[in-house]
Amino acid sequence: MNATALSPVDRHVQLDIREFMEREVHALDERRFRDWLEFLADDITYDVPLRVVREDLAEWELSPNGRIFQDTKDTLEVRVRRLETDFSWAEQPPSRTRHFITGVLVDPTEVDGEFAVSSSCLIYRSRGDSIDPNFVSVARKDLVRRVGESFQIARRWAAIDQAVINAHNLSIFI
Questions:
Q1: Contacts of 38 (CB under 8 A, 6+ apart)
Q2: Which of 124, 127, 157 is nearest to 143 (CA)?
Q3: Minimal CA–CA distance to 134: which of 142, 123, 148?
Q4: What is the pLDDT of residue 91?
Q5: What's the CATH fold of domain 11-160?
Q6: How does residue 1 score in pLDDT terms, banded at 50, 70 and 90?
Q7: Residue 32: what pLDDT?
């Protein structure tokens, strides 16, 4: 597909996927993490590579091996279970987040019922009574799979734009 070509994916499917993505981030922002897990396929890979500052014209600036997160559905469920306990120290006090999704592009894949979804995500995060919020800008590439009348995320690859994150920790979902 050339750079200016419009997506051949049906407009109704594109709108459905956008709504699905909006519902997913609402679950995160409302701290409904159990509901959020339902947006994820059982075989999901959740991958956030480490950004590396390198010289101009370097072949890569995202580490081919280093990861901030590299999760499966099982490890994401463990992270959610920990958030439900008093031992989630990084989330004391809990984060208040807003995920702003924009630039959603839906393209077909070679597999019927699976779509490559690219988007930009700006995450606003505040905690406790701090007057200094955190902003995290992310490029996301998801593989979204049709499941019945809805969808599930089968792969999330998210590259954080900052090499140094302006937060004490990164205990939120992207």
A1: none
A2: 157
A3: 123
A4: 85
A5: Nuclear Transport Factor 2; Chain: A, (3.10.450)
A6: low
A7: 97
What is the value of pTM for the model shown? 0.92
H or E element that contains 73: helix 73-83
pLDDT at 93 over 70: yes
Place of tokens 């991958």: 47
How far apart are the C-alpha atoms of 174 and 170, rounded to whole Å? 9
Q: What is the rounded CA–CA span in Å between residue 154 and residue 139?
A: 17
Domain segments of the chain: what residues?
Answer: 11-160
Q: What is the pLDDT of residues 136-149, one digit of tens each?
A: 999 999 999 999 99
Q: What is the sign of the dihedral through the CA atoms of 110, 145, 4 and 159?
A: negative
Tokens read off for 137:
């800008």
Helix, strand and coil in the chain, % to nearest 5: 20, 45, 35
CA distances from 143 to 55, 94, 114, 117, 119 (A): 31, 29, 7, 6, 11
Supply the pLDDT for residue 56: 75
